[in-house]
Amino acid sequence: MLKYQQIANEIEKYIEDHALQQGDKLPVLETLMAQFEASKSTVTKSLDLLEKKGVVFQVRGSGIFVRRHKRKGYISLLSNQGFKKDLEDFNLTSEVIELEVRKPTKEVARNLNIELDDDVYYVKRVRYIHGQALCLEESFYNKSIVTYLNNEIVSESIFNYIREGLGLKIGFSDSYLHVGMLDEEEAKYLGLKKGSPKLYVETIFHLTNGQPFDFSKITYNYEQSQFFIQANSHFL
Amino acid sequence: MLKYQQIANEIEKYIEDHALQQGDKLPVLETLMAQFEASKSTVTKSLDLLEKKGVVFQVRGSGIFVRRHKRKGYISLLSNQGFKKDLEDFNLTSEVIELEVRKPTKEVARNLNIELDDDVYYVKRVRYIHGQALCLEESFYNKSIVTYLNNEIVSESIFNYIREGLGLKIGFSDSYLHVGMLDEEEAKYLGLKKGSPKLYVETIFHLTNGQPFDFSKITYNYEQSQFFIQANSHFL
């Protein structure tokens, strides 16, 4: 981890530990520089990172302020780290329904930018929060990138393994969301009635070099899941 | 608009006009500098903005590449400009159900960070896409910031008016999403059956100085709406 990331983490922890609220002012740049024994450019980079992550906002000529805390138990739709991180205070478990190497369908091949005779790892899991079904997940990993998976890995955080085990750098993602009704199979896995509402999310995850490595389809249990998104002004 | 924003717009337009695809490489920095007669730092700022907006991704030592085009007709959950912009190719209209000045409820006061005896503008609208109900929207504007609204303004884009009419700078937003079932009133406005699925989104919009000015509650017609989110690697 680089120094500016470390400092960003420490500032974030400070905000949490002191339960700072939206609008609370952070110390000025000079104080932070002295406190972390870091240069102006390093502290500025830390603050920019925290701003991108929605932890603080900066007002020119006025200071650095804390942004609203995310509500507890909400899943970030912007996180690329898998939602295990959002729900770390919760008891999250996985049941692996299927794990196999197969050929991609046209849809999968198009989204992973591979050929129909390439191999993908297919993973189907139900994820539980405090023993309640949170979502049904089907994921397709480009096997030439994610070269190995087994039952033990997919019972835990696949993304942790991809980062730490395979040493890959996870980059950006594109997600497409639809609201609809559960079909019979989905309802069975989620412990709901057929026809209940669902949030269905398709995501393509890319490495930092732009290669798509994971195409995932998640169907959420509407009773167990809630989501948040923080947007910055650069989207204006 | 600043020069780097202008250049960013032109690059984005170039990508659209030439229907460039995910992974297509853009000209190198030096070429862009010459083409736009701009300094390295200006072009770098333009590219950073485009990266934040999910239009391009940069690979160190390798170049600048086009990111996947958003699917047409999808509403960005990261846009702070109101979704009129996402759907500009579509015929979007509004029906104003209610517009009045009132006192906030506790919930509204808390989210707008105002007192119970302050005033808010309450706006209730149904928004239509090609004549089909897209969503039911209830918004609460802090009247000390959004000092004036009338029927004509709220029939159009309120955000355009806030920016251009009132000269305010719209900053960041926090959104909370839930999936559920339509109640009778919502179903009536959206032309669906009671109990149909819904996406319900609460958003607090802030000025760039951090002041919340709009607390909005939107209930989407699941048959008419689909959404996308692009996440960057800094969320890792």
What can be said about this structure in brief?
Chain A has 236 residues and is an alpha+beta fold.
Keywords:
homodimer; 236 residues; alpha+beta; Arc Repressor Mutant, subunit A; Chorismate lyase; 2 domains; six-stranded antiparallel β-sheet; two-stranded antiparallel ribbon; 7 helices; 10 strands; 34% strand; globular
Which helices and strands appear, and what pairs or packs with what?
The structure is a homodimer of 236-residue chains.
Chain A: H1 3-17, H2 29-36, H3 40-52, E1 56-59, E2 63-66, E3 75-76, E4 92-102, H4 106-112, E5 120-129, E6 132-142, H5 151-155, H6 158-165, E7 170-181, H7 184-190, E8 197-207, E9 212-221, E10 227-231
Parallel strand pairs in A: 3-10
Antiparallel strand pairs in A: 1-2, 4-5, 5-6, 6-9, 7-8, 8-9
Helix pairs in contact in A: 1-3, 2-3
CATH superfamily of the largest domain in chain A: Chorismate lyase-like
Element order of chain A: H for helix, E for strand: HHHEEEEHEEHHEHEEE
Tell me the span between the first and last alpha carbons of chain A: 31 Å
- Spatial strand arrangement across the major sheet of chain A: 4-5-6-9-8-7
Identify the quaternary structure here.
Answer: homodimer
The tally of structural domains of chain A comes to 2
